[in-house]
User: What shape does this take?
Amino acid sequence: MNPFKEYNASITRRQFFGKSALGIGAYALSSLLNPSLMGANLPNNNVLGRNENGLPHFAPKAKHVIYLFQNGAPSHVDLFDYKPKLREWHGRQIPDELTQGKRFSTMTGEQVMRPVLGTMADFKKRGRSGAWISDLLPYTAEIADDLCFIKSMHTEQVNHAPAITFFLTGSEMAGRPSMGSWLTYGLGSSTEDLPAFVVMTSRDKENSCGQIFYDYYWGNGFLPSKFQGVKFRGSGDPVLYLNDPKGMSRGLRRQILDGIASLNNKNLLQYNDPEINTRIAQYEMAYKMQMSVPELTDFSSESKATLAMYGPDVTRPGSYAYNCLMARRLIERGSRFVQCMHAGWDQHRNITYQLKTQCIDTDQPSAALVKDLKQRGLLEDTLVIWGGEFGRTPFLQGRIDDYDVWGRDHHPYVFSLWMAGGGIKPGMSYGSSDEFGFNPQTNPVHVHDFQATLMHLLGIDHEKFTFKHQGRRFRLTDVHGQVIQDILS
Assistant: This one.
């Protein structure tokens, strides 16, 4: 019995003519068109080899990225951007010339009274650099001289999902490749046993923030699906089906995968579909992760001092502290891009207590990650980023006489984030906002400028790194972006 002959004999007339028509049409079309016009060449992405994109374009300063994305938008004026004017003007109407013509969310778009809200905590100058940091972030204050603050960030979206999508994909419309997908597509991976691009999510314990983690925040868009981020779950096994079914030996599993790979390779030769290549690669990665992931998640080799540094939640799977330590362990083992997303910062009506809660949850682990990387010699080639999709308004959402429901609305016009390691100049603040923390005052930095700078640190010229899709060459920064040279070490 020959299964291939049986398969061919069973093909219906409709299937035969359908396949024949496609084959003849494709052959005829290929004779008329230049094959190079059909799309971008895929990189070889051999794990330790050089890919066909010729990347990096120049010597990189960073080889890995850990992005601590704070969903919901932390309040810049309460954490990093010290504005004494806010307390001086507390309760008074913010100057009309600041808000005139500005777009806000529906929660304050029609609000007539917009009283200035004073800062939620005191600020102090920290370290030799003298960076202003809120008392709500005592652990971050300890590493002030390792950080570069950008205090003049600005974006274009006033709602969360479009703004997050814009930061991570370069477009507010879902469907473009995420930052991690671009980088792993372009640079490949330095590990055979773990995904190059890993995503972990956490949220505030009170579930006060309604932010949703959409899959397209780490999607591959029009790139082959091999470059989509692999999401590690926050409970149970990080990845499903790590364990073989009862009665199946490792050898039998290997035989099954070899058989599947053989069939997939036959299809690959017939159709040359890159998604078949992805399927083969992901089967192999899943097999290797059966061994690598249990070791990755076993914290028994970590010292008590290290675990204590990350805080009391570090051993609770799914917590922000746990994800920060996992990020370091992934980078150690060769993962290229680790995206830790934490929701809980959308403080429209609860900033008086929830801001402090979020700082307690995230401050210690974030600082510990930077310290841990530094003491292991990993910070030099690992870029750490902390920030959200926009900031929060210097004026109050709600009424000044209703303290229990004080809050701040979304604010895209200026906000802050910090970066550390990976070729970033430490102990400095770049850019500034006006006296109300409302608009950029010096050295404004757009989201595309931030993306261009990140790619530059990884040895990529953002204008040259493109992918042809539907007749157009796309890039992460669209047609914008300037590298922020002043913050590079």
